[in-house]
């Protein structure tokens, strides 16, 4: 599989920031001032740091969900749907169960969310494992099904009968403790980091992780040494779905306090791109997620203090992703010669 | 019973046909663009982004130049440029087409939002009486109400889309060009040994899908509506990809897929206006597509097993 | 004597680490059927792909109709009237026969395909040479035999005067092969010249005007078809210059450890489907299974190891029926397996050496406890194996893709042999491996046998089979065509069995 190159990622980051600086200059602003305000907007003050963390958590978890599925060679574009299902499941468990201690209620909400979204993730996994149905297309389609389904639930059986389609507010006992007030950052951050470390440890230090990695890298080898590739592929997808669901649960329990129809503006797609740029390397996932979260949060401060529109930062992020994807751009000729000799050997 | 009948007659009437076609058309252009590239084995997930860029170009040009023709032209040029970039990134710079597509979608939303602010000083949406829309087609049926509802007042590119389905099917399945294109997607090695330049063909169809994506965007902002809204495709590009999958990259079946999407959409909104949950109706096209895909692969696996059997 | 159409001289083609063709020599006369025979890896296909322009040779010259070229491109070759039918058909399965034939050379009216003109031309070839095809059927719906006829028409349609057929009968049933010979004869009468690549002696003898034998990438002999015999050809094909070695070590045979009873197994090709294979192996002996590749050996190994479905029959391992059990259970019943394709099956090339070495034991103590891998123990375990099997470079953290062929294979052998299982199934264990590693690996097989394991050695290398096996079974077209004791076996006898000489045409 791929190995990440820290150097080339750093180059791409610098190049896209430089392009952004050029654009800011063209618009008639001072790029140094703009980036300074961007930096301040992300790192100075509890509210700003909290804002970064608030965005970092779902981005990192959805990126992790995608990276885990990639470990079993499944391209799980369905994390967005899993996020929605996890969110509504957590919201339901959050308001339907009353009188529980937070130490019981919070894990219960997480569990319900992860079971719902894990089961959802198992479907494309099984279709791919047993019948080789293209998972990219199944998961794209299933996102819509999941979002419509949550939309039905929030409009009907789970509705709070409020002016907007949302669920009732969850019990206080299901709330994740806020940190860094007045931002909405919460202890979900530690849950997310814990999950990240746990998943990494699981992948590289347990038998189960050994199986997952090898099934993704070489299913023929895995089958031969006695690992059932189909089952492991499905388990990998269940884990991926569960992590996506956890991201949704944290959004509900830590940030919103209820499930709101259509609440995610494609969080999981940003996460997926972060993971893709990280070449699905678990260690790079938090780094890139943090980078994106910093840019997105800092952009608000930049806009407020310098007038440079924050949409420009979104543009820079997109340019960064496109540049990072074009791995052949810098190393085109070298790669070509390596490839052609490899082909002849085969 | 009467209540039910009343509801049914409110939901199912002649206007359902036209609202189906109306809802299906923007998806149809996206589908045809995806069908073309899929025939060369490129999943054009960036069609959404192409459409957004094109819709913006169309509105801007129509507003400033006062002509929908120029608006359409600008949209097509924009579509081709974006598609050319994608083709370059994928074919020359070896980027994963999926990442490029998603990146372009992201870029399109961010950049049009940015340009909307810079150009018109508004955010969210832009509508203005100076935006010249595409013409609508009207015929005189002597006041026959049914014919009027069924056949009148279509935006120009709604019937054109249907014609395009058949044109594209003809090109793909009856012409030399189509034959060669399909061979590129199905078995590049066979195409190569027949003297066909595979990379060139892929580049070529990406440009054509840019043209279709451009028309899709222009129709969305000048035909389907008369404004530009942030992220105005609202997933129609993805629906196009889904409809393409539904039809197995065949333009005709892709069109049927679009009609199912359009039908579900208009039926859903009618149910919603009556206070009934529409989500299950809206889900149908996606569920059907997953089922169709799965059944096809199951059949393939069965055939494979039978072919290899020793008994 | 008729005109010489093709004259290839001094052709050398090298792939990294392999000299596929050395000083290759070949000539073709107008209107003859010229067979090119040799074992797998003898360089037949490579030589012909050089002619068709798919490979550029390092040295040598190719003369076609009097013009000399250093190398050709496929386009040039087609222009010179050379057509090639590859082993893997170059057909688009989802398209119709007609579309496949005309692809790239379509008759057109405007931009449209001129279907009628295409049909007329196809019918002409079909009638002239007896090539029956259904133009409107999709390729995925037609039989392999018909697909081959489509390929032949395709080359004729492109104006081929010279046809190269790469192992055309490998995918055909005997009846279909008979049909093909009729077609080839009628094409010869029609003035076409044909190169026929094969390793089946009877059919080569039946059809050829001349026969060229290749071995180890070199030209061995060119003989007239009428003046030779199957035994002579077999000797030319399998004769050796380097003889690595030795004869089987004496065995102390014990009870039956593995028996395969009348199994039917699905196959990738028609002729590699197993139809009623039976044999048994005792402890302390090596059973060699000889045969030309693609006659069902791969399917046999996979079926025993649980990697392929057994449709009928039984596989008994250590007293238990294990057919269709998951591979892990079969391993638990006492099977070790060195697979034929080390890059796909035998190794995870993207993992390091220690993960590869520990793959079968990582989930058991002492390498892990309570599901947690103890990497320190794994490293110790791996370093022990690296030392005792002399894997170089000696690093547990090196990625498997960085090892040479021989050392990569040693990793597989070390993992499988060190388990000391009751049955060792070794499939092409020394293919593509350097001489030094070949010796190490063969010694390991003998050592396993001496330690009391039942060894099944599947190999297409006759010399390997003869120097290791106590008994030899020969596979041909999905069946075992003969079983001989190693003391009675020689290369000629096995060569005949392997090429179908012992049974039907």
Mean pLDDT of chain C: 88
Gyration radius of chain C, to the nearest Å? 25 Å
Can you tell me the overall shape of chain C? elongated
Number of helices of chain C: 17
Structural class of chain A: mainly alpha
Any idea of the CATH topology of the domain at 256-347 and 421-498 in chain C?
Rossmann fold
Radius of gyration based on Cα positions of chain A:
21 Å
Number of helices of chain A: 14
**Major sheet of chain A:** none
Secondary structure: number of strands of chain C:
24
Unreliably modeled segments of chain A: 332-346
Would you tell me the overall average pLDDT of chain A?
A: 90
User: What oligomerization state is this entry in?
Assistant: heterotrimer
CATH class of the domain at 256-347 and 421-498 in chain C: Alpha Beta
The CATH homology group name of the domain at 256-347 and 421-498 in chain C = P-loop containing nucleotide triphosphate hydrolases
**CATH topology heading of chain A:** ABC transporter involved in vitamin B12 uptake, BtuC
Largest sheet of chain C: 6 strands, mixed
Inertia-based shape of chain A: globular
Order of helices and strands of chain A: HHHHHHHHHHHHHH
Helix content of chain A: over 70%
Question: What can you tell me about this protein's structure?
Answer:
- The complex is a heterotrimer of chains A (about 350), B (about 300) and C (about 500).
- By secondary structure, chain A is mostly helical.
- Chain A is about 75% helix and about 0% strand.
- Chain A is built from 14 helices and no strands.
- Chain B is mainly alpha-helical and about 300 residues long.
- Chain B is built from 13 helices and 4 strands.
- In chain C, the strands form 6 sheets. Chain C has a 6-stranded mixed beta sheet with strand order 6-9-10-3-11-12, with helices on both faces. In chain C, strands 18-21-22-15-23-24 form a 6-stranded mixed beta sheet, with helices on both faces.
- The two termini of chain C are about 30 Å apart.
- With about 500 residues, chain C is of the alpha/beta class.
- In chain C, a hairpin with a 2-residue loop joins β1 (about 5-15) and β2.
- Among the domains of chain C are: about 1-75 and about 195-240, 3-Layer(aba) Sandwich (Rossmann fold); about 255-345 and about 420-500, Rossmann fold, CATH 3.40.50.300.
- Chains in contact: A-B, A-C, B-C.
- Chains A and B meet through α6, α11 and α13 of A and α5, α11 and α13 of B.
